[in-house]
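Dear colleague,

Following up on Tuesday's group meeting, I ran the structure prediction for the three-component complex that the binding team flagged. I've pasted the input sequences exactly as they went in, so you can double-check that nothing got truncated or mislabelled along the way. The structure tokens for the whole assembly follow below. Feel free to forward this to whoever is handling the docking comparison.

Inputs:
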Amino acid sequence: MFQLLGIPPQALFGQLLLGLINGAFYALLSLGLAIIFGLLNIINFAHGAQYMLGAFAAWFLLQYAGLGYWWALLLAPVAVGLFGVALERTMLQRLYRLDHLYGLLLTFGLALILQGYFRNRFGSSGLPYGIPPVLEGGHNLGFMFLPNYRGWVVVFSLGVCLLTWFVIERTQLGSYLRAATENPTLVQAFGINVPRMITLTYGFGAGLAAMAGVLAAPIYQVNPLMGADLIIVVFAVVVIGGMGSIMGSIVTGFALGVIEGLTKVFYPEASNTVIFVIMALVLLVRPAGLFGRAQ
Amino acid sequence: MSTWRTLTLMAAALVLAVGTAHAQISDGVVKIGVLNDQSSLYADLAGPGSVVAARMAVEDFGAAAKGLKVEVLSADHQNKPDVGSSIARQWYDVDKVDLIVDVTNSAVALAVNQITRDKAKAFIVSGAASSDLTGKACSPNTIHWTYDTWALANGTGNAIVKTGGDTWFFITADYAFGHALERDTEAVVLKSGGKVLGKVRHPLNTADFSSFLLQAQTSKAKIIGLANAGGDTINAIKQAAEFGIVKGGQNLAGLLVFITDVHGLGLQAAQGLIFTEAFYWDANEKTRAWGVRFAERDRGIHPTMIHAGVYAGILHYLKAVTALKSDDGTKVIAKMKEMPTDDPLFGKGTIRADGRKIHPMYLFEVKKPSESKGPWDYYKLRATIPAAEAFRPLDQGDCPLVKK
Amino acid sequence: MATTTEYLEAPAAAAASVPLRHQYVAFGVMVGFFVVAPFAVYPIFLMKALCFGLFACAFNLLIGYVGLLSFGHAAFLGSAGYATAHAAKVWGFRPELAVLVGVVVASLLGLAIGALAIRRQGIYFAMTTLALAQMLYFFCLQAKFTGGEDGIQAVPRGTVLGVLDLRHTLTIYFVVLAVFLAGFLLIYRTIHSPFGQVLKAIRENEPRATSLGYTADRYKLIAFVLSATLSGLAGGTKVLVFQLASLTDVHWGMSGEVVLMTLLGGLGTVFGPVVGALMVVTLENYLTQLGAWVTVVQGAIFVVCVLSFRRGVVGELGHLLKRPL
């Protein structure tokens, strides 16, 4: 078999596919962040903690209510979404008059509280959560063994991302959202309840993060710090994609997942930093991000 | 002599007598500080359990009956060398602590090692793995009790190659500890006639091992060596099960695994895992009795080798203090090296000039779910490495304390 | 978006360009406290407060007077720390030269990161600094010379100018105090100088400042580099106190901590960062026995401060006295 850059092509395709799977998480998370930022102009630092809450919610549902993965996929985002709504109503709302950086600081503080509390209660080694029986095992694709669950992750997140994009860009509700981003006062003058829309949007963003958490629970450890370092990478993804661009964050998420996957093959030590390096380069060349609108 | 002078002399003599009696045990209390990670990565394999072990040691020694006042304190170093060294400094300077034990995390242990030496106190390491503690950084104030990277590499590497695992692929955590494990194990594998087919380095605290496991699978090595610890090892093992690695005929070798990791993984995921440890609670009558007693006091968690090391180390320390009637750090450590050790957990052993405690090491394999009778019944013994061969030879460590 | 926004900035009354008498008094109180304290309180603890105080003051220069929230300031603290440790231990430099090496490294890093980050404003700026600092963290994790997880240990303290032996606790304490005061006064002088006025003008109305002929980006960059340099000074000094350079100092948690200290003490006030640093260091010391609760408490302080205590301790005090502090 010929080798491409020292790696047999089968291994390469395998790594590309794995990168795509990781990209699915980046895409889901940056989508949530981009939506929240687009409408509320708040950087939701608590996004990583909400991702973690989703995974824990799945674990709780299994442990205490005997409800398995499929229920978790439905209920956890709703639960965390409601939690997000409560947060927005009680705390975030007060900050809209202020400099947007206060929102960042508030959500940062919230993230610290959530992560610290969960770490106290559950330790850091993580809790086990099994792969749903229906999705166990895998298929030998010839160039690699693909666990079924991982395949499901890609398909599902792609579906959710595209559905969200469709709702925002092609439906009436989405058009209200987009209008409210640009000129909330005017939109409110038309009789649309903008504050409620904002609240629900934040809840939706949090719910998306939680959904990513449920997806992650069977394959990564359910542990209190699972979102802490991930969130910074997602920030970088959003900066590269361009803040506020929905399609931008989806495409960038998947693309960066693939690039990271390739880095793991050729130069694994740098797999942590490659996304930041790309971010630095993009900032030099296109400060608004690849798909963003210049400010 | 005038009455005044006699009285003054008598007073002085009295003060001296009383003073010196107290000066031998500083402040009249032997203070032991258990310093480790109580809240993050390593909280389960050491953490609050080590404090329990320390208290058990003090009680079992019968300190009160022997007229010795002993106090146990604890603190959380959060796996940060600066927090750990601050606490150690404050303990020695302000709280008059005489002995620090455990310190899981080699970075913190090296820092505390230095501070203990500067202040001439005592330090018994149970949790940290760096073999530098009895090598380049050896100190007359430190004893390295339970295990180190050399012993792990030697035990696991050697024994596995001898039983047919002669081609290896390493998945290594890209930091000093991981490199050390990989380097030591590779040397052993090559010496025993095995081959290393490839290695890959992953960043510390990696959530997703799929890419690295895929590379390991492609290499077709019989053994995939995991040169990492804690959450990384658990993640790698979990995901290896997902990718059907063990089913596909390859075996995983954990280079640093504790019974609490196996408990967290569950036997379904961890079965067949091979690794070296210094202690297993269910090994014999004495260890079992202690293990059960420990579990009652530590929320049902059975002891890891680190907990055992804390217990045994403190027992031996208190014996030395009683024999010397002093808690002067340097003197007590020297006495500990002089006296042979004997405790219910590690049996009979010795402590070398470089501070290395010598005892046999054991190669364990994780039982299949069908073989286990209940929770914490996880290991079967594959081989015993005799004490004389288990640790790095005295002359190979570059320890300045060892006369060539 | 809403047109009236409350900016992250110094209270309006701080527009005075002449140092006010009550600020002299406050300065006297601060110096008096730190001169007397080591005889009653564990000096190493106080030195930690001083180093972080300087770090927070340097950070505050950027947020309070230029309006830029940097979420990656740990990069400067930590990189200077590593450079100083390396210079002192491996190259055998004297402490003052080792710290100088650290300061230079922090400066250059500040120039590099600043040049990239200044291109964006507000939140984008914050996220960019965060991401770049994280990149530095991973670099430090893997580079050989930083010792990775172990850090650089057993850094020798040496003797300053061949005379002051830093191994004596009180000696190093007063050296650290001198360094802190020097940095503090430098920041103070900068704020109350023509340069500081231009920064204020840029923060309040950048287009107008530009129309007056000031290149806003260049001024912002200079301020950024100055902030980075002084953070480096704090980092290098801290390494000599603790004789250890570790990854904690380049981790984003440290960036968050300095924000916390400044927020709690009072964003944009002169003495706020020092008070905030002292409070946070005390809190952490007190809570070490409780391990992970420290994070929860820090988070709670953030939330409370942002929601209802935005002026911070010193800011509220200044508001009560109706004089800027």
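The interface with chain B takes residues 42, 44-45, 48, 138, 141-142, 147-151, 153-154, 242-244, 246, 248-249, 288-289, 291-292 of chain C (CB under 8 Å).

Cheers,
M.
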